[in-house]
Amino acid sequence: MSDKNEPGKVYNPADDGAEMKFSDKMSYGDYLGLSKILTAQKALSDAPDELLFIIQHQTSELWMKLMLHELYAARDAIDNDRLPEAMKLLARVSRIMEQLNSAWDVLRTMTPSDYTRFRDALGQSSGFQSLQYRLIEYVLGNRNIAMTKPHEHDPDGIALLESELENPTLYQVVLKFACRQGFTLPDECVSVPASAPHVAIDAVEDLWQAVYRDPSRYWGLYEVGEKLVDLEDYFRRWRFNHVTTVERVIGFKRGTGGTGGVSYLKRMLEVELFPELWRVRTVL
Questions:
Q1: What is the rounded average pLDDT of the residues 107-123?
Q2: How many domains does the chain have?
Q3: Has residue 131 been placed in a domain?
Q4: CB-count burial class (<10 Å; 0-12, 13-18, 19+) for 147
Q5: Which contiguous run of DSSP H or E holds residue 236?
Q6: What is the rounded average pLDDT for all residues in the chain?
């Protein structure tokens, strides 16, 4: 019997039992739908860097799809007192945010001259119109209702946003959990789904102060609080990387969607998702 590892012999995976024929079987490409994914990049110019721009945004949307999946599951887990499960899910969300942050490093290799070659082809399309990004912000509590307007042309998109607004935010679910642990909060914090961006509430800061002064007594809340801080930390970095990349590529030009560009993005840096969790650090 010949030795398949003999010198000069070309390795054939079939010799080890690998399946090599897929005319009647599901292949890797079939399972992942690669024929659709890899043909979804439709450049509108002959600029070489347009492919980079498209792929960076498409992959970011895929990561955001997973992020929403995990956030919905984490919210449900906390609402049903399944804290260990929620901790795993929130940790994964932060790792997803790491991937989103890393994507800017690739996009920043595009120079202003590169981008200028295809910018006009974008028309008025802009990242601030991302439906999934808006859903993420709504889940996390930045419920700026005015931001539904860019989606009014899309009935399915509007339906998703309106459905999300009927749910409590992730933070509200955490605060409800705190109430089940014996804390008392004003009804407006937890009784109805938020319809505006969250603003700091003294009673909520008092809650976190009690938790952080005695972590062992309130370990579940302490742990979920730190997971929320992790998440917002990465989210802030994502926004900062966004504004830095935009300024590096287009300076202070207006955005393609009509926003102020860098000035608009810098305003977004001021948004706080879980303000009491950050402010409590000052008073401890």
A1: 92
A2: 1
A3: yes
A4: middle
A5: helix 219-250
A6: 92
